[in-house]
Design brief:
2 domains, six-stranded antiparallel beta sheet, 14 helices
């Protein structure tokens, strides 16, 4: 709602043959770019194009290592492109990629876009946010939910593709996959506006297309301050793997170069400020240097705990593994009340701004709501409310397009 250009990008590459399914599976990806001018848009575009290209090109390597390598190669491409043009200097992007094979699901992740899974009426976040807030919580400096935690900006990320020639890629999984599993890949334009307790039930009970559309619509209705991307994946039929999964995890430590550079820059700035006698600002620079150093140390510790391949070929699992956060995905009466408030607000806005909405069509989807509420059929109520909201928003988008065509015509 507030961005003139879209710095998000995504990719969905389903397997087009049984051989591709066995070797590389289905690949999905969300990227959220950052940088001035068109730099962020370019960075996310490169990631969405190159990661699938490099992943599918490596036919002979293990899928886990192929996906990690693909993200690392995309990082090199973005970094090189950023060095070629001053306007693209330090451009970057997040990337959250998911490969689903019959033997399991694997994730390669950098940044604060997220991958969730809904299973057994529970929402699980399978990726770790590479943000200042999450890194400080993970290092034990602050506690989640504390006053100090609330004072730290949520949008400061500590890792991305592009700014540095090297990047530490989180590899999660392999996760067992089951029929009925739902996955959500999304940028922080969605999670910044919706709580996990809202995402879980909507993701769990709505059709994939309806869930994706409603999640984006709700984020826009709450202000839409950032670009919003959502991919919803529904596993309808999963063949049971035979024998031990052949997927292994490889890895090791990678030096946190971005945080090291940030620490050195802050220390250098503090030295210059002291020479000019500006002690107040110097203290701020020193504090930022300390924070950067601590976050870098936390990243290094986490990288040392990453899984490494053992001589037996099986993965040695880290001490901490996903899910990193969980929330209930069972529908309750709270969610229908929230969606009712959205519908009421839409009607009031339509009346005040004289939007032309076909309310008869919208109301037809809500005809049996009171009866379903009295019977405790919350899932059915939520489905009808979701369809009503999406229909209203669809009519509004069509009106905006029609007005734009009339003006330009």
């Amino acid at each position: 709602m507030r961005r003139s250009n879209n710095q998000d990008a995504h990719a969905a590459v389903p397997a087009d043959s049984p051989e591709r399914l066995r070797g590389r599976g289905h690949l999905f990806l969300v990227a959220d770019g950052m940088g001035a001018h068109a730099a962020g848009e370019l960075a996310s575009k490169i990631a969405s194009e190159r990661v699938p290209l490099y992943y599918l090109r490596q036919n002979d390597s293990d899928p886990v290592e192929a996906l990690r390598s693909a993200v690392e190669q995309a990082n090199q491409d973005i970094h090189q492109r950023g060095r070629q043009n001053p306007e693209f200097h330090n451009m970057g992007t997040t990337v959250s990629s998911l490969a689903i094979l019959s033997e399991g699901a694997i994730i390669a992740h950098v940044g604060d876009s997220r991958i969730y899974r809904v299973r057994d009426q529970k929402l699980e976040q399978l990726t770790f946010d590479h943000s200042l807030l999450w890194e400080m919580q993970a290092s034990g400096q602050i506690k989640p939910g504390s006053q100090a935690s609330g004072s730290i900006p949520k949008n400061i990320i500590t890792r991305s593709l592009g700014p540095s020639s090297h990047v530490l890629v989180d590899i999660e999984g392999p996760f067992e996959v089951r029929s009925g599993d739902r996955f959500l890949l999304c940028s922080d334009g969605l999670t910044g506006q919706l709580r996990d307790e809202e995402i879980g039930p909507l993701l769990g009970i709505l059709r994939p297309d309806l869930a994706a559309r409603l999640l984006v619509d709700l984020a826009n209705l709450r202000g839409g301050p950032d670009n919003i991307t959502a991919i919803v994946i529904d596993l309808q039929q999963v063949d049971k793997p035979v024998g031990e999964p052949r997927l292994t995890m490889t890895g090791g430590s990678t030096w946190p170069w971005p945080m090291t550079l940030a620490t050195l820059v802050c220390l250098g700035t503090a030295g210059l400020l002291e020479s000019f006698g500006n002690r107040g600002t110097m203290v701020v620079a020193l504090i930022l240097a300390i924070i950067s150093a601590v976050v870098g140390a936390a990243q290094l510790v986490r990288s040392l705990k990453r899984p490494t391949a053992s001589t037996s070929g099986k993965a040695e699992m880290p001490r901490r593994s996903p899910p990193y956060r969980t929330a209930p995905a069972k529908p309750s009466g709270d969610l229908p009340r929230m969606l009712d408030q959205v519908l009421v607000a839409l009607r009031e806005a339509a009346r005040e701004r004289e939007w032309q909405i076909d309310w008869a069509q919208v109301d037809s989807t809500l005809a049996d709501n009171q009866l379903m509420k009295s019977q405790g059929r919350f899932a059915d109520v939520i489905r009808s409310q979701a369809e009503a909201i999406v229909e209203t928003m669809s009519q509004l988008r069509n009106q905006q397009r029609d007005k734009g065509a009339a003006v330009t015509g």
